[in-house]
Amino acid sequence: RSQVALLIDGVDLLREEATNIDLWLPSIFPSTIRVIVSSEDGLLADHRLAPRGWASVRVTTLELEARQAICASALASMKRVFSRHQMTSAVGSPFTCRPLFLVTLAQQCRLCYAKELDESPSGTPILQELKRSRDMRELYHNMLQHLHATFSDGPTYSLLVPRVLALIWAGRRGLLESEIRGILAMEAREHVPQERLLILLQMMQLRLVTTCGLMRIFHWELREAVGRFCL
Predict the structure, then answer these.
(1) Does position 75 have pLDDT exceeding 60, yes or no?
(2) Global pTM?
(3) pLDDT in tens, 49-65
(4) I need a labelling partner for 78 at 20 to 30 A (CA). Which of 32, 46, 100, 212 fits?
């Protein structure tokens, strides 16, 4: 019986020198290890994975019920609930057929429009976000713009968001909170209030992966967005 599950997500996104998976991914594993590999359609899937004869499943776009379930789960994790009208507005766009977009959209709406959503059942803020964020690139860019505008409107250290995210982006294995504070203290000419840093990291917790205290950006598309925004 399988005791270990090894998930390798997005092998088609690996750098060119690592895409020859025949050199590092065995064709046969022990019976106690279950391996799951994901890839988009293309040369890698057709010429590298298909000849192995492994069982495969083609994942289709999300149906309406699945979109609603993912959206509700994402909101529940933030202790929020959409009305029926808000839910219909959120999942009615064709862009929400991708799970990552749908979850990030829910997070973005709570981040940018929490007050409006609490006060109005119309779902208008969700439609506004869908209109200006038509793919992951635009969604992440607008999220970073909002965070920067939020934290730059204050008396101290207006560059907090781009500097913190740039440091996490540059950390190969992640950074500790204490390391971020130490670097900011060395390079900043103005005082960086610890409470503002803690609030920012708390707002970013759904977009960071923390392992043994080391914080890393959780997804390659967000990492690219941070690179474009901060560097």
Answers:
(1) yes
(2) 0.71
(3) 888 888 888 888 888 88
(4) 212
